[in-house]
Amino acid sequence: MSIDSPTLSVAPILSPELAAPAPPARAAITAAWIRDEATHVRGLLEQARLPAADRDAAQAVAADLVRRVRARARNQGVVEAFMRQYDLGSEEGVLLMCVAEALLRIPDQGTADALIRDKLGDANWKRHLGQSDSVLVNASTWGLMLTGKLVDLADDTKRDVHGAFQRLVGRAGEPVIRLAVRQAMKIMGHQFVLGRTIDEALARSRKGEGANYRYSFDMLGEGALTTKDALRYQEAYRSAIHAIGRDYAPHRTQAPDAVFGAPSISVKLSALHPRYEHAKRVRVLDELGGRLLELSQLARQYGIGLTIDAEETDRLELSLDLIFQVLADASLRDWNGFGIVVQAYQKRAPFVIDYIAHMAGQLGRRIPVRLVKGAYWDAEIKRAQMDGQAGYPLFTRKQNTDVSYLANARRLLDAGEAIYPMFATHNAQTIATVHRMARAMRGRRDFEFQKLHGMGDDLYAEVIPADRLDVPCRVYAPVGSHEDLLPYLVRRLLENGANSSFVNRITDESIPVEELIRDPVEFVSSLEHIQHPRIPLPVNLYRSQNQHRDNSMGINLANDDALRELAAAMNSAGAGSWTAGPLVPGTQPAGEKIAVTNPADRREVVGHWQASTGADVERALANAVAAQPGWDATPAGSRAALLEHAADLLEARMPAYMAMCTKEAGKTLADGIAEVREAVDFLRYYALQAREHFAPIALPGPTGESNQLQLAGRGVFVCISPWNFPLAIFLGQVAAALAAGNAVIAKPAEQTNLIGFAAVQLMHEAGIPRDVLQYLPGDGATVGAALTRDPRVAGVCFTGSTETARLINRALASREAGPIATLIAETGGQNAMIADSSSLPEQVVKDALGSAFTSAGQRCSAARVLLVQDDIADKVIGMLAGAMAELKVGDPGLPSTDVGPVIDLDAKCVLDEHAEKMQGAARLIARATLGEGTQHGTFFAPTAWELQSIAQLDREKFGPALHVVRWKADELDALIDTINATGYGLTLGIHSRIDATIDRIVARAKVGNIYVNRNQIGAVVGVQPFGGQGLSGTGPKAGGPHYLPRFATEKTVTVNTTAAGGNASLLTLGD
Q1: Using CB atoms within 10 A as the burial measure, which of 306, 391, 462, 809 is most buried?
Q2: 1013: alpha, beta or left? (left if phi > 0; alpha if psi -120 to 50)
Q3: Exposure pattern of 283-304 as b/e (b: 16+ CB <10 Å)?
Q4: Phi-psi sector, 411: left (phi>0), alpha (psi -120 to 50), beta
Q5: Looking at residue 778, what DSSP letter applies?
Q6: Cα separations in angstroms, 559 against 359, 378, 701, 756
Q7: pLDDT per residue as tens digits for the range 349-362
Q8: Backbone Cα Rg of the chain
């Protein structure tokens, strides 16, 4: 590869992939993403409120429904009683599900037995004995668990069930339990899945009471991780449509509205494409558009329906664009069977309905719309907090969602001929209110209710008959094996508290009917706080947990409005004209101007910098020594306020600093946001810590004496930062040293001088004196060595390689004059991720991919070695190879890029040499494809190899290189010892569902940061303090409570308060 001579003009960031501005009806959806909850809900209340007479009538119907369901429940069968007892609202029901799901996926019996020991001993099984009306359930609670049969138990066993369970495990061992849980799952499976195959499901749908329902068949399975997965799901949907269509053919009529009564299939877009995400918009509209069109044409041919399931909020607009692209195809003309799902918990729901109605008019169609409450609530709330969004895309109270559901139900009914309304609910109050809105108030019969198979049967038995509410109901019917069922159940029912709670409570006669059917409009109208007071806005996340600082704010990269603003700001940030040089009062930059080129395209000059001279270094030291006492004497609260001001400035100018991160450091847009947010968090966190630590601390002692501990700055601190976090680590080091009262000389990595210069300028603008914070760009030999050997330097804060840390340590130790200097060093790591056979392979692959290849693998925390238990290794390795084929390597300024360049030619050469060495020593698993234009930059294709042992790796390879090693179930302790033997101890990932295994690894591993069942990168300041041990650093952890005191000296002051004559405090005690 040749690195071209710089000639190119600066390429735009982000704008080549921006979507065209949307028409008003579609744009209104994006604009409403995070509307103020209280204002929005007040508007919805007016739309959801019924006139008094209609409301009373609806409430009476709801009360009658509940009473009838309770009467039915008293006559329930054994299986129904068991299912109700172990509902998914109880800890035991959840545990049973999770254990069963894991057991079905664990290939080796040893790990399966360990999981049983770990989980089933903890549950509160005693609570269920005596809790059910059905005597058989009490007997079968343990009969089912232990034998898989619904049988009675001996009296002694009933009296001490938990003891009996423990004895049984001891006597019969886990295999008996393993068999029992699998038996229980067969019963669960029959309850919640209509059939293992589509033919079985179709046959069952016609039997008994099943024949009273319409059906929408859902082919079970998780989202596709690879193209192979997506094509397999495509074939499953294709086969199912053929089967449903052939089964329906004898009953098909040619009536124009016949499709609304016909069976349908529910399609998950995430199953049909491995990269169904906003950033891959062009690819998704092309590839997924073709797949969806084919299925739609097939469904139209058979006269059946096809409905697109709703997924996460950031996929909403992409889904709508895809849906209407497909619907506009001439081959689907006159077909009204294409359905869309709308989630009432999203604030945007009314605008989505308006847009669907608008498009239906444009296309001359009637569009079926299924209104649901939404199934990803907790995950969406967590994500908004983690991403630092300005608000939540969802409502924070279940009752607000209930109000939204009713308001949007009215909207669907008022859309006239544009929409065929479908109301999915298990809530009697919702059913009664919607029924009233439709039938009595609008005279509408053309709508249906929907429910999940296995839930709400008793309720809908009171809705469908002609002498009851006389409304058809469609069953959302999962089809698939038990292996596929459990992830569906655990996700759908655990996450969907709004659905399961009513189902769980409707038969509980201790709950008054009036409470169960309370009108959500009335409830929400009475609230003092419409937003949930215990769910703080993301900005207040830390304040709500008594840490008095703001959470840094991010940018929503799935929001087209936000992207347009971001592109405009990043492209006007001055790339091409950026400059840097020493910032030392009393000197002028005199060196040659050196061009800085873009690592993604070395032809592109993004700025110029000038190196520091020996005279600059000398002057900076003199300035710092003179300025430090005054800065140290500045109250800690005042120093903190300046850091907080800097944080606010930086947050407000995020796009400009992101542009520098992309153009100088090769960071993707997501990495750029994370970088600026971390820098902001450091500034705020160390300001908070300074206020807490640097106030004098009163200590105990005898009467007549005061004792006080005071902290003060050490003197002059040199901060030497790396290129991989040129803003976050740079400012983190500087902020900590400044907060503690030190004067700071900052030396950036040579690869990222422009970013460091801009950061120091911002700190000066915020009020940090220019002689207290100085900037010395330059090479290690001229600047770094001169600073570390100078006796005026009281401490060095360094992030970089272990070898350089040793050199600095030796330089500091060899000084003959000055203080014994402090060294705070965070260095490299040979970071491992361990996955046992109880882990979810899909999750392991996603997290390994993210941990190894995010930031082109150029993070201290990045996973270098994936250690997979032999029993699942083939599956994981196969999935890893498939997922790597989906990675896009290229220009980091484009949203569609997953992996950008490595920092420079030196870094690339080290990786190339390693790849060459691996050619003979390892088995290649996969190598990603380098994208168009990468020949002009320093790119290394993300690569994974399989090794025999960790010992084959001599030192950290800093880049997108992952190594996979297999291990056997009985080798866990030896495996951890091997990791420890590398001497590094920075991060470790653990994937397991067995708490005892996790605890064992945590206790034995000598590492600084351990991440369980998630990726192992992206430590958050004040949340996951970061730093290692051994060869990985000195500690204390950056972004943690012990970091700041390391930058300070301690002083104890003891005053004999009786020296002035007597002890007044003792003499005035009184009685």
Answers
A1: 306
A2: left
A3: bbbebbbebbbbbbbbbbebbb
A4: alpha
A5: S
A6: 21, 21, 60, 30
A7: 999 999 999 999 99
A8: 32
- Give CA–CA dist 1015/958, Å, rounded: 18
| pLDDT tens digit sequence for 561-608 | 999 999 999 999 999 999 999 999 999 988 899 999 999 999 999 999
**Euclidean distance between the first and final Cα of the chain, in Å?**
89
Query: Do 13 and 893 contact (CB within 8 A), yes or no?
Result: yes
Which of the 8 DSSP states describes residue 18?
P
Q: Is 597 helix (H, G, I), strand (E, B) or coil?
A: strand
Determine whether 481 is exposed, middle or buried from the number of CB atoms within 10 Å of its CB (0-12, 13-18, 19+): middle
Catalytic residue list: 826, 860
Give the pLDDT confidence score for residue 673 in this predicted structure.
98
The token pair at 861 is 């925390």
Cα distance between residue 580 and residue 759, in whole Å: 11
User: Which pLDDT value is given to residue 187?
Assistant: 63
- Planar angle of CA 640, 764, 818, nearest 5 degrees: 75
Q: Which two tokens stand for residue 813?
A: 């130790």
Per-residue confidence band for 481, with pLDDT thresholds at 50, 70 and 90: confident
Tokens of 77: 């069968």
Distances (CA, A) of 462 to 74, 144, 427, 467: 15, 31, 13, 9
24 and 355 in contact (C-beta within 8 Å)? no
CB 1044 within 8 A of CB 686: yes
The dihedral of CA 579, 582, 588, 591: what is its sign? negative
What is the SS3 assignment for 71-107?
HHHCCCCHHHHHHHHCCCCCHHHHHHHHHHHHHHHCC
Please tell me whether residue 947 adopts helix, strand or coil conformation. Answer: strand
Distance of alpha carbon 47 from alpha carbon 50, whole angstroms:
8
* Distance (Å, whole) CA 993 – CA 98: 9
Query: Which one, of 816, 817, 849, lies nearest residue 833 by Cα?
Result: 849
Strand, helix or coil at 892?
coil
